[in-house]
Amino acid sequence: MMATGALGGCASAPAYGPFAGQLLGADVARGHALRDGRLPAASGLERRIPLLVLGGGVAGLAAGWRLREAGFDDFALLELEREAGGNARAGANAQTAFPWGAHYLPVPGKEAVALRHMLRQFGMITGEDASGAPIYDPYQLCADLEERLLWRGEWQEGLYPSTYLSAQDKAQRDRFTAAMEAFRKAIGRDGRTAFASPSRLSSADPAYTALDGISFAAWLAGQGFNSAPLLAYVRYACRDDYGCEPEAVSAWAGIHYFAGRRGWASDGAGESVLTWPEGNARLARLMAGRVGAERIHSNTSVLRVARDGADVLVDAHDHASGHTQRWRARAVVLAMPDFVARHVATDFAGVKGLTYAPWVVANVAVSRLPSGDGVPLAWDNVAAGSESLGYVVATHQTRSNGEAVGVLTWYNALSRGDPAAERRAMLARSLPQWQAIVAQDLLAMNPELEGLIERIDVWRWGHAMVRPTVGLRAALAGVAQNGPVFRAHSDLCGLSLFEEAHDSGVQAAERAMGWLGHVHEALA
Amino acid sequence: MAEETAPASKSPASKSHAAILLLSVLVVATCGLIYELLAGTLASYLLGDSVTQFSTVIGSYLFAMGVGSFLSRYVRGDEMGVFIRVEIMIAMLGGWSAAGLFLAFPMAADFRILLYALVLAIGVLVGLEIPLLIRILRGRFAFRNLVSNVLTYDYVGALIASLAFPLVLVPRLGMIRTGMVFGLANVAVAVALLWVLRRERRVVVDMLAAVLVAGSLVAGLFLGERIQRAAEIAYYGEGVIYARSTPYQRLVLARRGGDLRLYLNGNLQFSSRDEYRYHEALVWPVLGRVAHPSRVLVLGGGDGLAAREILRDSRVAHVDLVDLDPEMTRMFRQIPQLSALNQGSLSNPRLKVTNADAFRWARSAKGQYDAILVDFPDPTDYALGKLYTVSFYREVARLLAPQGVMVVQSTSPMVAPRSYWTVAQTLEAAGLSTRGYHAYVPSFGEWGYTLAAHQPPVMAANLPAGLRFLNATSEPLMFDFPPDMARRPVPVNRLDNQALVRSFSEEWAKYEG
């Protein structure tokens, strides 16, 4: 019977895979062809247009939405990928849609005027209560149970552990909460909110901007925060929103995560988030609908952006037709991420010190949704013991039968090492390797999923988001916004968030309209 | 005995002993691994978390085998006799292990203690086998060949077991009968050895024990199916006549005497003795308050019992019934005992069944209904809780005709008064007027309902003659709430707060202690 020893050894190391699935991601070949100058030069007639929006991520779409709102219709939006949406794209299977990137929007605060205006137009805000607070469509607010954490073998509600905490852990948690609450209420000497959302509206008071000069980890240490559960929670927050470690994130950005959200809604829904099965692709597609398909030129690489007298010349290659077109625009909203813009719009982009976090997102089709000891399945499910950021249930908002087939969207920010090295390592891994990593992580959280995983599709984001590193905010403050090229992107505020990209797009659109003499009422 | 026979290795008798003993290595190796796999699989099946269960079961089993091997040193003399008795004991314990664990699971206060006690006991016995066999065989082979032979058969047995278990045994025999079959194999080794030794030693007592164990295992083999059911009986406290797991729930039908009961995920849905009280109270206060209930909607109610009441009303021209689980509606349409109970309501041409998630169905449904009956399971989890939210009630209100009336099954106002009144509060937040009422249903206790309509529901109801529970006198009494169930301030149940799921679990946990 000694044979059982060997068998026991095998049973504890299950094989993960093979699984059906696909490896997805930004079109690397397209990006590199562009970088290496391998695309043909412009030919044929120039096209004249008053305004071009370059880039169809959230910032570009928000710019397009804002232009159309103001009755400015004569523009085109050029997008590199097959579909606009940037980080807010989504996929679907027979059961449900699911996100490939950002999956929620916190309920906006009073400062986010343009964003709330848009949400009302999209039917997400349905009215106002007696106090004037927006009433949100309940189907679009995240349904209870919102979050759960696997902590010491049991799922519990929320993302901060509530059990097995020492008196010191609890004291530090309370002190941290109080400190963030104080920052949330803080007003700078210039009369502006210390940590505003959109961040553009934040106070310039050095008492707060100085926090950009140190890391969040250093700030925490300086304040005497050393409780392991607290630091783990903070690390999760930094990686989830910024794709990097507290050691890299500036204290300003770290605090902004906890103090910048002041959601304004009826029925106490201000703390909630808006979410959809397809994630923020819901918003991106609605914006694209407003821009109009006839204005969106997808599969189009911008090769060069250059001044020519008062005009801007834009060479753009259409991958479908193989033709490179020269556009002559009177103004441009440059809504591409800086790592692309710095190669094609050399006179207008290239911010020193900008780095990007690589991410991996997997959509996992399961024949039965997971459960586990403790509180039941939530929208967002995170394990304290895992390096991943957990998984979100795509069907959370749409169904009342909790146990049927579904899709889990698994997230991981590759934040441990140097971003470039992590990016190379990410691209070097094969689909089966990524699938095994995802499956192993999911099964560690939910062993009952064994045999229920039907498919794992993996999306590799080489440059998923800008990293709000120490000193970046100061560096970005020096980026000039002069016509005729107006920049729009969340890269420009260093926080890769929907509300930031939206604000940036709206603001650039308004400046461009001002430049072109189109009268409009300011939203931003 | 072994001491005496050891030198006489050339005799034909001892040759057949050796052959039987080597064959028995193969058998005991296979059996030993099967019991281990059974315990691991059963523990995963009953307790969940297969990684933990398998690894702790395998670990303790291997450790117990080590203990058995260690203990073998205390066997001095008569290794053969001890070996035979060990085989009989393994046959008994191992053979009955799966059946015993299944039966004990619903009854045992701490199932894990029982599980590991059994795993350790079998492990110790199995651990004794190989050392004893090596000692029994030591004179018959050169040591080089002995070790080689024993370990070869041991490993081959392990391979047989590990392949046969998942591929053949569990799918074909099930876990209970697999245990019985391998118990028989163990006891067969004992019987074969006793038979060849019958001239050399007294075997009567051992043989008798072996035959008894074998008899019990054969009986168990034939009763395997019934034992499986008995295990559910122990859980439900009555005779399970039908059990089925669907992608959505575990359906169990149980009968005791004339009483037929349906359980969904272990929660009682109805008892045939008093379901007429529940369903008359659900249906007639609504239909009795609608002048022309031509089109009726039932949400939930896949048992067809509410539909039975509705279809008795000749004014009703069409009923739409929306239930999540196709297996549920199929069962209540096709199984004769069940379709007798609902009087074939689910096959009635005036009724249309739609199998869909009502939460999604309601959002896209069109048309108006004169009466709507909302009869979902209690809000025990966040998924079911969505069907009790203001968002859902707004959709249902949209489907309710201007003069229509609806009713919502609203849990017990006695056990869970906050939860009960949350339903009314939430219906009102959806723009409806409500009136609560309650009825005593013995198998449930004091049960609550909520009427809702675009105008305040009228006081008087026109009830048909011939109802068993309700008449013009008893119906108005249902609307009176004594102080312990009286209305109290409660929040509105919304998708993003699920106040009802939270209060429901608190109130029922407190009530059930």
TrEMBL record, chain B:
Q: What residue ranges are annotated as transmembrane?
A: 20-47, 53-71, 83-107, 113-134, 146-169, 175-196, 203-223
Enzymatic reactions: S-adenosyl 3-(methylsulfanyl)propylamine + putrescine = S-methyl-5'-thioadenosine + spermidine + H(+)
| Gene3D superfamilies referenced in this protein's UniProt entry, alphabetically | Vaccinia Virus protein VP39
Pathway entry: Amine and polyamine biosynthesis; spermidine biosynthesis; spermidine from putrescine: step 1/1
Task: Name all PABS domain ranges.
Answer: 219-454
A GO cellular-component term linked to this record: plasma membrane
Q: How does it sit in the membrane?
A: Multi-pass membrane protein
Indicate which residues the UniProt annotation says bind S-methyl-5'-thioadenosine: Q249, D323, D357, A358
Q: Which UniProt keywords apply?
A: Cell membrane, Membrane, Polyamine biosynthesis, Spermidine biosynthesis, Transferase, Transmembrane, Transmembrane helix
| Cellular localisation | Cell membrane
Q: Does the keyword Transferase apply?
A: yes
SUPFAM superfamilies noted in UniProt = S-adenosyl-L-methionine-dependent methyltransferases
Q: Which residues form the active site?
A: D375 (proton acceptor)
Enzyme superclass (EC) = transferase
Q: Where does spermidine bind?
A: H279, D303
- Primary site of residence: membrane
What the protein does? Catalyzes the irreversible transfer of a propylamine group from the amino donor S-adenosylmethioninamine (decarboxy-AdoMet) to putrescine (1,4-diaminobutane) to yield spermidine.
Give the record's family classification: Belongs to the spermidine/spermine synthase family.
Cite the record's note on assembly: Homodimer or homotetramer.
Q: What's the protein called, per UniProt?
A: Polyamine aminopropyltransferase
Species name: Novosphingobium umbonatum
Q: What is the lineage of its organism?
A: Bacteria, Pseudomonadati, Pseudomonadota, Alphaproteobacteria, Sphingomonadales
Q: Gene name on record?
A: speE
